[in-house]
């Protein structure tokens, strides 16, 4: 079943053809892009503009979702997780988490995860991106990637050096909870942590308010489907609710040539020039394996003929880990919780949004701290570094070596802390009838930026095409990750006990000062409550093949002539940032490469 969206420069959707319709112009295109997500739509739009004589198709498994409040309204972020626009992939039971399953929200909608994410607009440390070049990827250093990321953004009110002409808008949110003004003074009084009002120029260390990707005119989410796509020309076709089963490959000398894709209903779409996978860090490696590209053991188990031996496919799976604590705030402060429990206030705030006035439905400005281990621990980090060396002793993995190397660089964050102006956690907001129902809360979400746990994602051998991917991240399988998060939780509590933030809060709600006091109790709390920040990456890494790489510096899959991967899976080593800005940058860089080749230059 196929739904078509034809994109023109004037309209986001020029016309919608009903389910079951045939693609206009037949089933042959120059460029076939699998995945209409963050990277896929950005790339497709740039190709449409840069190669106006080329025919381009984007194939997206989900619906359009363009008029969905849960996507567009910033204050409703997170409401679509687990719903019809989300693949919501489960991991296998995680041994270290007492066999708990952790779910991975991934966008199943036009815009992909840029339609579902929580709107954080930041970048990693410059040194982290510069390392990409050193690992064997010329042209992928900080200078080049910074320019590519700026091509994607228009940062309204941003510091000098911000992007000013890109499709995606970023801004500091107009809605602000006054009590969050107490966060930066409290944090910056501890452990030498600086104030930082310019965290996206390659130096994220410090505490400051964080920009979000919101359109300043509509105050809607600004993402690939509603910002990039309207700029495309009529040479771009987007198929929604259409799923690809595999890439079709044909022997061409010593290489394999991608001739197109086969859909799950058996339809074949032909590619004259290239097939490009932009299906994300979970599904791009799965599509490679379904097409006969991957490790022999994986393909043999799935009874798929191996066409290219590439054991790095689906390996190197990395994710940011999180755990949170929350506090009740004084009654004279209003938090975002009020729109959830007070229907009158909710209606008032919604009406303010309809009249383009600041409201909690804008979402609210939030603070983020990025810190190194010495800043988190408040002293020597020798014990934490020794743990890392012990865990990775003997490893020849280039990513592991880099994680050890970066521990000596104070400019590379190891911990992120997000300060929210509403409740966040696993305990749940106090239920009706509880003495705390109707109260306001705030939380610190603690994120581990470079966990040493490295896992994998592979096809289901029993159902390679339609089965759920087999995801095993191996969360908390080492003491470095566990102790790092415990250090961070202790520091988070210390922040709340520091003025002026101390005077804002009433009491610790989760876990509670009496419930968790000892290291053993912190450990138990962590194992019960650890979650993820929804940032899988590195599963089709841009690295030399000998180092477990899957794509070369032009993003071409090893062993192929014309099959590329363009999404977060090609990130070679884990970064200390929410990855959407980097993913847009990857798409912009890929477009430059492909357009140059397409023009014969």
What would you say this structure looks like, in words?
The protein contains 16 helices and 24 strands. The two termini are 39 Å apart. The protein is an alpha/beta fold and 601 residues long. Strands 1, 2, 3, 4, 10, 11, 12, 13 and 24 form a nine-stranded mixed beta sheet that branches. Strands 9, 16, 17, 18, 19, 22 and 23 form a seven-stranded antiparallel beta sheet that branches. Pfam families: GMC_oxred_C (PF05199), GMC_oxred_N (PF00732). Keywords: FAD, Flavoprotein, Signal.
Output the keywords.
601 residues; alpha/beta; 24 strands
Give a brief outline of the structure.
It holds the Pfam family GMC_oxred_N. With 601 residues, the protein is of the alpha/beta class.
Could you give the topology of this structure?
Elements: E1 3-6, E2 15-17, E3 28-34, H1 38-50, E4 56-59, H2 69-72, E5 89-90, E6 103-104, H3 126-134, H4 142-152, E7 153-155, E8 168-170, H5 183-188, E9 206-210, H6 224-228, E10 236-240, E11 244-252, E12 255-263, E13 268-277, H7 280-290, E14 293-294, H8 296-301, E15 308-309, E16 321-329, H9 338-341, H10 343-354, E17 366-371, H11 373-377, H12 382-391, H13 398-406, E18 415-420, E19 441-448, E20 456-458, E21 470-472, H14 479-496, E22 505-510, H15 519-529, E23 531-532, E24 563-565, H16 580-598
Parallel strand pairs: 3-4, 3-13, 4-10, 7-8, 13-24, 14-15
Antiparallel strand pairs: 1-2, 1-10, 5-6, 9-17, 11-12, 12-13, 16-19, 16-22, 16-23, 17-18, 18-19, 20-21
Helix pairs in contact: 1-16, 4-16, 12-14, 14-15
């Amino acid at each position: 079943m196929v739904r078509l969206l034809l994109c023109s420069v004037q309209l986001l959707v020029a016309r919608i053809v009903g389910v079951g319709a045939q693609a206009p112009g037949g089933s042959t295109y120059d460029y076939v892009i699998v995945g209409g997500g963050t990277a896929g739509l950005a790339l497709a739009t740039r190709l449409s503009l840069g190669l106006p004589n080329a025919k381009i198709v984007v194939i997206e498994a989900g619906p359009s979702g363009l008029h969905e409040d849960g996507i567009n309204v910033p204050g409703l972020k997170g409401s679509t997780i687990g719903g019809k626009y989300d693949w919501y992939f489960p991991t296998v039971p995680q041994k270290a988490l007492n066999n708990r399953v952790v779910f991975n929200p991934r966008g199943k909608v036009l815009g992909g995860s840029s339609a579902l994410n929580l709107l954080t607009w930041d970048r990693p440390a410059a040194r982290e991106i510069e390392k990409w070049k050193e690992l064997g990827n010329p042209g992928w250093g900080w200078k080049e990637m910074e320019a590519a990321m700026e091509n994607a953004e228009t940062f309204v009110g941003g510091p000098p050096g911000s992007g000013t002409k890109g499709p995606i808008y970023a801004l500091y949110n107009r809605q602000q909870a006054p009590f969050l003004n107490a966060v930066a003074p409290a944090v910056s009084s501890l452990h030498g942590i600086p104030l930082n009002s310019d965290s996206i120029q390659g130096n994220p260390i410090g505490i400051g308010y964080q920009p979000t990707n919101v359109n300043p005119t509509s105050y809607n989410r600004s993402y690939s489907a509603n910002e990039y796509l309207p700029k495309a020309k009529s040479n771009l076709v987007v198929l929604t609710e259409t799923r690809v089963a595999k890439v079709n490959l044909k022997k061409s000398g010593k290489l394999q040539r991608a001739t197109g894709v086969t859909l799950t209903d058996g339809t074949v779409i032909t590619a004259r020039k290239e097939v490009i996978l932009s299906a994300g860090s979970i599904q791009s490696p799965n599509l490679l394996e379904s097409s006969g590209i991957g490790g022999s053991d994986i393909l043999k188990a799935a009874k798929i003929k191996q066409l290219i031996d590439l054991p790095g496919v689906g390996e190197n799976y990395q994710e940011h880990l999180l755990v949170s604590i929350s506090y009740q705030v004084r009654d004279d402060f209003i938090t975002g919780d009020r729109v959830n429990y007070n229907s009158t206030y909710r209606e008032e705030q919604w009406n303010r949004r309809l009249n383009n006035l600041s409201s909690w439905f804008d979402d609210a400005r939030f603070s983020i701290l990025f810190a190194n281990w010495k800043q988190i621990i408040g002293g020597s980090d020798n014990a934490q570094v020794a743990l890392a060396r012990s865990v990775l002793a003997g490893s020849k993995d280039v990513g592991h070596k880099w994680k050890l190397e970066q521990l000596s660089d104070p400019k590379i964050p190891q911990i992120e802390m997000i300060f929210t102006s509403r409740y966040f956690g696993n305990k749940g907001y106090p239920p009706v009838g509880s003495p705390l129902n109707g109260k306001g809360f705030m939380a610190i979400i603690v994120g581990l930026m470079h966990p040493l746990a490295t896992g994998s994602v592979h096809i289901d051998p029993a159902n390679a095409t339609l089965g759920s991917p087999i995801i095993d991240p191996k969360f908390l399988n080492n003491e470095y990750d566990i102790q790092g998060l415990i250090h961070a939780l202790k520091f988070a509590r210390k922040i709340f006990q520091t003025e002026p933030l101390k005077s804002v809060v009433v009491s610790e709600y989760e876990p509670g000062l009496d419930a968790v006091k000892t290291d053993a109790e912190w450990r138990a709390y962590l194992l019960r409550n650890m979650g993820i920040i929804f940032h899988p990456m590195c599963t089709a890494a841009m690295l030399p093949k000998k180092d477990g790489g899957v794509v070369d510096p032009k993003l071409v899959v090893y062993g192929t002539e014309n099959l590329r991967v363009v999404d977060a899976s090609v990130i070679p080593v884990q970064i200390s940032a929410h990855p959407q800005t980097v993913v847009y940058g990857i798409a912009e860089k890929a477009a430059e490469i492909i357009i140059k080749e397409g023009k014969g230059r």
